User: What shape does this take?
Amino acid sequence: MIQNKDLIQYILGISDNAMILGQRLGELCGHGPNLETDIALTNISLDLFGQTRSYLQYAAKLKDDGSTEDDMAYLRKEHEYKNVLLVEQPNTDFAYVIVRQFLFDVYHLLFLEQLSESKDQQLSAIATKSIKEVKYHVRFSGDWVKRLGDGTKESHNRIQAAIDILYPYTNEFFEASEVEKLAMSSEIGVNVQDLKTEYLKLVTQLLTEATLTFPEQVYFLSGGKQGKHTEYMGFILADFQYMQRTYPNMSW
Amino acid sequence: MSEAEIKSLEAIFEQRIAQDQKIEPKDWMPEKYRKTHIRQMSQHAHSEIIGMLPEGNWITRAPSLRRKVALLAKVQDEAGHGLYLYSACETLGISRNELYDQLHSGKAKYSSIFNYPTITWADIGAIGWLVDGAAIINQVPLCNTSYGPYARAMVRVCKEESFHQRQGYEIMLTLCRGTEEQKAMAQDALNRWWWPSLMMLGPTDDESVHTEQSMKWKLKRKTNDELRQQFIDQTVPQADILGITVPDKELKFNEERGSYDFGPIDWEEFWQVVKGNGPCNKQRINARVSAWDNGEWVRDAAVAYAQKQEDKKMATAS
Assistant: This one.
């Protein structure tokens, strides 16, 4: 049996991906290329924060020391956040936003489909609910990959550049951390290594359709799951934690 | 069309409005009616879109997950309002791109209130409470306005705005029941947003150029001064419940009138902000213009892709 403290760590790993990506998307609100994409990206951010709340409420309950979802979300040190490096990458331009989203969404859906079969009923329920939302995310980002890839020369070049930069962060999804291994052996967690083949198949299919390719020589980057983040993370947290750090112990 | 024919059409048109019938996009309408509606509806749509910016400013820093989700949803609602107000406006024969051009070039106006900065979290509460509160007072009568697409859009807008208003007030209530520091933050926000909110109801009646015509077309049911009084009478007791003070030394309940008397509004400030000299006018327009310019290659790509798909379909069909 997995111990509560490990299960909490496992949940944080899942919810931090949703939370940090939601935070990145939140930066874009009001600045999208048109109103429709603005609304769609905000919607995805909302879904991700909604999922974050479900996970963190559960984690806070497991912690059983009076902690709230906000304590779990806001009051950790940078190295205690366990999201993958991909989701903290910046909104360099719309192509980066879409590629980051697409590379995450495809993984996210595969992951949730497995998590919905978890022995942990709570996690299974959250996953089942989230799948409906993430199916839409995959469709949205996938459609835009096609539009940008097979649109104009400029859009093709821009999105190809974004893929070249962001693709090296994808292998981290499939590198199981210690806590992921523990959760997996208790039939609670997902075997992330097993998702890789299907992931590559799906992503390659769509990139091919969009006349895009993976970079040829890739040195994969990882570390987020161990709490070793990029330089961007400190700034994300500076914004994210600002109120909770400046005005501690207050209700909002 | 002869002048006599136009006169007769106009008479029928005015009669329909007097009988509370809706005017629909394909109906005949006087050119002035069309132009006035384009001006007002686009101004309204632009206000929704510009209004996303001061509130969007706090999305990444919202103090709790619950507040963050609510704020995201609120700003998304505003984008939605903008979207269907632009669509309603397009039924009058103007394109969304033309409307954007008018906003970006400064030709079209938007609500001046959004040229003020949101510098603390309490501003998000104050905007919901005061700005959405004043907007509702302006907008509820529009649910019965004569132009059908506008009236129907407003029914939905008003429902969502009143939800936002309650949410804003609840933020203020939480702050006022919190620590001294939080209460001070709420008071400071009220100090900064009170007067601009009163200005939102428009210039005084003797300065308002469009009132008479707008009343006739049911774009307006009450004058600016009447609406302002209604806003003050409704809002002051709410401030009392919060336990914060409206920043007007002359504010006093007048038993005889059954309304609050209030001090003079600084209209010089109002006109300066309208003219573009407010604290954030330039930043707001720059943010919109750069979002639009930076998005050009994206929109071009979408058009090119759709064209390619269309061509493929044609090729397979032939």
In short: The radius of gyration of chain B is 22 Å. Chain B has twelve helices and two strands. Chain B touches chain A through 49 residues (CB under 8 Å). The longest helix of chain B spans residues 148-176.
